[in-house]
Structures are given as structure tokens and as C-alpha cells.
Amino acid sequence: MSDEKYAVVCRGLRHAFGSAVAVDDIDLDVVEGEIFGLLGPNGAGKTTTIRLITTLLPAGAGMVEVFGLDVASHRMAVRRTIGYLPQQLSADGSLTGRENVELFARLFDVPRGERRERVREVLAAVGLEEAAERRAQTYSGGMIRRLELAQALISSPRLLILDEPTIGLDPVARDGVWERIQEVRRATGMTVLVTTHYMDEADQYCNRIALMHRGRIRALGTPDELKSGLEPGATLEEVFRAYTGDQLEESGDFRDARRTRRTASRLG
Amino acid sequence: MTHAAPAVPPAGSADVPPAWTTWRLLPARVVAMCIVELQKIRHDRTELYTRAIQPALWLLIFGETFSRLRAIPTGKVPYLDYLAPGILAQSTLFIAIFYGIQIIWDRDAGVLAKLLVTPTPRAALITGKAFAAGTRALTQAVAILVLSAILGVTLTLNPLRWLGVIVIVMLGTAFFSCLSMTIAGLAMSRDRLMGIGQAITMPLFFGSNALYPVDLMPTWLRVISHVNPLSYEVDALRHLLIGTPGHLLLDFGVLVVAAAAGITAASALLGRLVR
């Protein structure tokens, strides 16, 4: 089970909020170095899965390993391998870009002597060097996302976990965020686990995709495998509909809607 | 678009530093949170000024009036001198008791989840937040003490006593901010926390020795004052700042135990907020 070539291994993973089963008996392997997409509509259980992997929630049943470390028993060690970008806009608007990243450098124990240089490097890597001394509340939505990416990268994570990284962004900003993710990944070989409900993004950037619906994984494979498995010329959206028999838009509860809209309005 | 190639070191270069055992994590996290608090205050001083208005009114109006009335027997100590440490404690109480709102805001904004995916144990995060509140309270304390000095309150010149004041303000604020974060973990919403905060602040304040000596209180209020950590904070501050007889060791002990209990309770409830 602790095979070195897997960044994430989930077996029989389950979590319920009261009587609502959010993640229902999931088996999942994320190979080291790949960009793995977790796709599904709001409320499919993507975020809960992420929270189980990132140590934020205890598994109701089953287990998760990150780089061979059991998440339940090696919480701190697992966290040192992870860079995490939550769905909401989580940068602190009252601090400058540099201060935002410095905080995470301290929280990840980047040695004092290297801190300044490391912060400068990651800010440069996301193209925010010039805006570093401005407070984040003056940033555009795309810049804030890239700042949050810098926060997640400061610890040189082996696994970057992105929860809806481009939600509420315009197409140009979306491309900007993905470009940075791609560049850093090429330079470092880190693994990327991303949730999204934008099918075009998943198609373009992910090596492999798991389609998630109502807490379960309905299909898994490369975008091409999934599409050609349905019929020649099929789109991912059609694949998704075929597996779930559902519309993408018409799901998710009040809490999901509120969270998504809040993110969007803070961006606007 | 041309820019520097991402000079991010190879993934995995920041593996577990073996020396970072939990006991070294705690001071590191506390320092990190306090630095952030100071940076925030530096960027926006509005709150510092607006929060100074209320204590100023207490000292100027309540303090000056009651000094003239001589209604409250404070021995040889002028009433304004007696009042100043009480108002200082009150002011830090007000800062601390609503500090939990920040953690609910952090929860809603995804910041809390992000902080908890760093190698920071829950207790270390809460301790960091508690002392960050203490840091904010200290900046407020400076304003109140300067005003007190201007109004003619005779404050100590002994640097050791000033050090003691810093420690006591930190501990008192740590306790009350943990109380607030504990309530946040139970109430789960800003509105409810505001309501509860409003409801308990005044009883805590009036049920303490901040305005009048314990001897003047009816028995039932004396009991409340005895279990109220604010009374111990005021007693220590009064002793340190204006030299009235106090029970410094007891005060310090009570505040340390209270802060530790507060940190424990708030850490235990933190999980509810991230769920």
C-alpha cells in the first residue's frame, strides 16, 4: 500500500455529515507527478474528499495515505508535504502580498536566513514581485489567486491541492493561474490534485480525471480515454452526463451556493 | 510573457525538520501570529484610535466626576489613580471578548482551513491567536497609560513593574480572547457571538474590582468578583502601576491557569468550526 509512486492513496474512504453521506466508499490513487482532476457538480463530495486528504476531517471509514504516510496517524508530517489552496478567497486583504506569503513561510518553518529569498522567489514565480508591497485588498481576483498559490508553494510542497482554483475568474485570469501551476510543476515535478467543475479546464490541463457524483467516483481515466470510451468526438460534458444522468448546474445545496457566490462576489 | 523561471526548489526539499518538535513549534507559531497582528495594526490604525475613545471617556468623565464626589473610598489613593488600571483592564477585555469574531471570519473565508493544513497543532494556533490579541491589547494599553499620565495619574517608573504589566495584560487578554473563541466554537456564527459578547462584557466588568473596591460589594457580587479573572488582572495592574497592596503571585497564578484552561477549551472546539 505504501508504494512510493503514489502521492495519494484512498481506500474505502467514507465521510458523513449526520445522515448525509458526502463521500461514499471511495478508492483513489494519484500517481506522483501527475495533474489529477476531481470533477463534479457542486455538492458531489469533491471538497469533502480534499478535506479528508488534507487532515482537516477525520475519515468516517477507510483510510488515506499521502506519500505512504497514513493521514490519521501522521498528521503533521503529511501537512509538511502539502500545499493547499481552499475554494474561498483566503488571502488577507489587510496585509501586503509579501506579508501574506511570509506568514506561511513562518508557519512552515522556513529557516529565518532563507525566508526573505524564498518569499521573493515564490512571488516572482507567480508574477507578483512588483505588487509585493501593496496590500492584497488592492489586487485583482486573478492576482489574489496567484498570491494564494504563492502561499501554497512557499513550503515547496510535493503535493499541491487546489480546490476550485479558478472559480469566479475571467478566462484570462484563469489561464494566468493555470500557466503558473504548469510552470512550477514542470520545474519541480510536484503532484497536483485539483477539483473543478469546469470541464474544459480538466480536459486541457489534467493527465487523469475522476468523475465524482453524489459522493461516489463514477468514472476514472485520461480525458481522451473517457471521451473515446463514450463515442468518437464526445466532449467531457457529454461523458459526465452519460455517467451521472444529471445536469451539471442543477445540484449543490444552499451552503455550496452561498460559498461559491461569496467567492465570486469577493472577486468582483 | 517573460519572467524569471520559477525558482522554486525541487519538491520535497522542505521535508520534516527533525528538530521541530512540538515544544519548539509553539513559540514559533505565537511569534508568527503576533507579527501578523502588528503588521495589521501598522497598516490600519483606525481601530486603535476609535477604541481609545471609550476608555478616555471613562477616565475623563466618570473618573473626574467621582474623584470630586469622593463617593468611593480608596484610602490615600486618588480615585483617578485607582480607576486607571481598571479602565486599562476593561479596555483589553473589550478587545479580547470580540476576538472570536475574527476566527469565525477566518472560517468563512477559508483562512482557518488553510492555517490548519500547515504543521500547526490546534492548540498552537489558538495560543498564537490569543497572544496576537494580547499584542493588540498592548498597543491599546500604551494609549490609555499615556492619557492617564496626562490626567495626572502617578504611574510607576520601575522597568520591572512595566514588564510585569506587559505580562499581566498579555495573560488577561489571552484568557478573554480564548473565552471568546470558545464561545465562537459553540455559537458558530458572528451574530450570536456578538450577542453573547455584549451580554457578558458588562457583568464581567461590573462584577470586578475595576471601578470600586471589593469591600464595598454586597456578598453575592463579592463571590462573582472572586471567580472573575478580570478582578485578578485589575489587582495585579493596580499593584504594579500605582503601588497599591496586591497579591501579585496569586493574580499571576490565576491568570496563567485561566489562560491555559481557555486555550484548552478553545482548541477542543476548533474542530467544530472547520467541519
The N- and C-terminal alpha carbons of chain A lie at a distance of 45 Å
Overall pLDDT of chain B, averaged?
90
Number of domains of chain A: 1
Number of distinct beta strands of chain A: 10
Order of helices and strands of chain A: EEEHEEHEHHHEHEHEEHHH
Classify the oligomer.
Answer: heterodimer
The major β-sheet of chain A equals:
6 strands, mixed
- Which radius of gyration of chain B do the C-alpha atoms yield? 21 Å
Order of helices and strands of chain B: HHHHHHHHHHH
Helix content of chain A: 40-55%
Protein name (chain A): ABC transporter ATP-binding protein
GO molecular function (chain A): ATP binding; ATP hydrolysis activity
Membrane topology (chain A): Peripheral membrane protein
Keywords (chain A): Antibiotic resistance, ATP-binding, Nucleotide-binding, Transport
Any chance you could write out the topology, listing elements then pairs?
The complex is a heterodimer of chains A (268) and B (275).
Chain A: E1 6-17, E2 20-31, E3 35-39, H1 46-53, E4 61-66, E5 69-70, H2 75-81, E6 82-85, H3 97-107, H4 112-125, H5 141-153, E7 159-163, H6 171-188, E8 191-196, H7 199-205, E9 208-213, E10 216-221, H8 223-230, H9 236-244, H10 254-267
Parallel strand pairs in A: 3-8, 3-9, 6-7, 7-8
Antiparallel strand pairs in A: 1-2, 1-4, 4-5, 9-10
Helix pairs in contact in A: 3-4, 3-5, 4-5, 5-6, 8-9
Chain B: H1 22-43, H2 46-69, H3 79-97, H4 100-108, H5 111-116, H6 122-150, H7 159-187, H8 190-206, H9 219-227, H10 229-242, H11 248-274
Family (chain A): Belongs to the ABC transporter superfamily.
Protein name (chain A): ABC transporter ATP-binding protein
Keywords (chain A): Antibiotic resistance, ATP-binding, Nucleotide-binding, Transport
List keywords for this structure.
heterodimer; A: alpha/beta; six-stranded mixed sheet; 10 strands; globular; B: 275 residues; mainly alpha; 75% helix; disordered N terminus; ABC_transporter_ATP-binding (chain A); ATP binding (chain A); antibiotic resistance (chain A); ABC transporter ATP-binding protein (chain A)
